[in-house]
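Final report, closing paragraph on structural work. Over the funding period we assembled a curated collection of sequence-structure pairs, and we close with a single example.
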Amino acid sequence: MRTADRRVVLGLHRSRHRRDLLTNALDLGVTALDTASNYLGHRSHSTLAARAGDLLPRFSISTKVGYFEGGHSLDQARLRDAVEQAVVGLGREPDTVLLHNPEHSAPDAETLSQACAVLADAAERGLCGSWGISTWDPRLLVGIDLPRPDTLMVRSGLLVSSSVLNAAEALVTAWRPTAVWGMSPFGGSTTAPVWQKVDPRMFLRSPVATPVQAAFRVAFALPAVDAVAVSTDDAEHLRELLGGLGQEIDTEVVQAYRQLLCQSP
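Its predicted structure, as stored:
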């Protein structure tokens, strides 16, 4: 089962890129960072290098390319330049480069394949360790054949719709990525009203967990993923999430929940 070795990735989508957060993450055993060329107003890479350049060799870093100052683009030359600039900005080669939400440009099969080829070539040239795709809405990519990506990143968790879950699983089956990662496990925030009305602990075999821990743990199963990226600036929040990884999911309850999702409009 994919979730046998669960991994937490510190996402920097809403982060202020504080050095103390990165230090705390390392102290907690979180050694994976996920960012993108457009995060922090297109300054994520250079800010990380400036504030914590000496810490970055201790992390496995994934970044994403596809969004530029003028908008989204799958132009091969721009993507190639973006990967090269990521290396310059970070001061090191990223471990993984992901094509960022390619569905935003509604590509046909040829355009998407060419964009992926740029990243695959970058990996072959040593500009990154591996390549993959990060997609917010995988439904728009179903049916497109691609060379096998190293990583596929999709939304995961209790707030992901049935159609998105099914599409993500369809891509896993079709593309056979080496690793599947989840993102946005709380649908944006742990303080959203939905979390005041639903107790995610019902999905665990033991209720000895906080609701936040339970929701995060279930995110590894909806759909089945190897790692989940979570964005936070709070080290204690990160500590809480790690404390719930050992909880066992009640697969029958999860399956019943998926059946209910399928019946929803």
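The longest helix spans residues 109-124. Strands lie at 7-11, 32-34, 60-65, 67-68, 71-72, 96-100, 130-134, 151-155, 179-183, 227-231. We thank the funder for supporting this effort.
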